[in-house]
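User: Can you fold this complex?
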Amino acid sequence: MEKTEALGLLTDRVAKFTAMIGKRLPDDVTAKLKELRDEESMPMAKMIYEAMERNQEQAVALNRPSCQDTGMIQMFVRVGSKFPYIDALAEVLKDAVAIATKEGPLRHNAVETFDEVNTGTNTGTKAPWLYWDILPDSDRLELDIYMAGGGCSLPGQGKTLMPGEGYEGVVKFVLDIMTSYGLNACPPLLVGIGIGTSIDSAAYMSKVALMRPVGSRNANPKAAQLEKDLISAIDSIGLGPQGLQGKKSVMGVHIENSARHPSVISVAVNVGCWAHRRGTIVFNSDLSYELITHKGVKL
Amino acid sequence: MSKILNTPVSDEDLKDIRIGDVIYLNGHIVTCRDVAHRRLIEYGRELPVDIQGGAIFHAGPIVRKVEGEEKKFEMVSIGPTTSMRMEKFEKEFIEKTGVKVIVGKGGMGPNTEMGCRENKAIHCVFPAGCAVIAATEVEKIEGAYWQDLGMPETLWVCHVKEFGPLIVSIDAEGNNLFEQNKVLFNKRKDEALEELYTKVKFIK
Ligand code: SF4
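Assistant: Here's the predicted assembly.
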């Protein structure tokens, strides 16, 4: 394949994948919502879960974005040091978002700060927002794409605590967000928590946590236990779908952690709404691909 | 209880509707959000469409022009936006316009409660994120006013059939579902925290 032709193909595939994410939830989220619906006993909550399910079916049938807020696009890029298109990748990803915006269609959400104008393409200064990671000795590209909606970005917060406040301060910080902002962020939520040394690392990890498959557990047994304890605790509040009460509140709680300075413990929270539109695609060097989160879907 | 309301809605129609009820709407609903509220209340302009006895939707839709036809539009995707942003204006808005049904996302505050009680109106929640369902319940877009505000803020006059489910969050007596839930949620949160504190003694 010619290089220009290959770059065109890569751009096209990323664009199609991005547009598709706005119309179909990933398999794990769909399965979790179904489980929550089946477990629900309150009639209103059940009715809302059923409406959600119908909405997702219609979105696919009519080929339309399932929620009108298709968010700001954020990507986690893990690129092999030997992936042949590494040099052009940043540009490819930006172009792909502009194309997806037109063809999706995606709502125009990128507003330039200070100038306060909507670019109309969902691209702009540092938009799409990209996180980079290098895969040593690999010729593949792994891409997580996420639509960060307004409603579900709003609860995002972080705080650096003194160690005296301990993990008690951490869990209080998380639960307070659930009953204040979380309520309006379209529960059942996926709760991403970062715990580490400074506010930036905690914030980053809280978003990484949202890219994990729903229900996956932290490798550290104590952190994994806290994930489970937090699920029970937040579920016991009974936010229900749309914050209108129900048996459960969350789709999951994911914690990512790093070592910390002895004098501080930073915590950050990011939430995903029920319409958690995230997708993972893996490209080989010949640009053949595999959809990790959306099995069986054709681009 | 599940009930169908037809616009224009009368005080009588709202008499037996309580928070937590589920209703559906037949007739007209007009999208109306931040700037439209501001124009009416802060700048004293008249709404270009009569919504006496009518319904408004706090929403910014994706609308498509019907190809080849003048002034014809189709609803692609429409979902509620956070109602609380309109809290500041809503009481006066209800008084001035005579609107009876306000649809949005999340709860509203004491101002709206008062507006609903004094003028007999209700606030309802449409399940957010269900934008395709809402769009397919719009049978026709019958008008578009204040298009200078851009697609999300234009007043789109929608003819709807069994538009819903709409969950009543403030009734015409001023009862507020979200406020009641908040008290309950906070109480449960405090209990959950007491138990969690015993499980997180990692720093010894
Ligand atoms: S929080 Fe999510 S589901 Fe709710 S309106 Fe925003 S993007 Fe849509």
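Chain B touches chain A through 47 residues (CB under 8 Å). The first strand of chain B starts at residue 2 and ends at 6.
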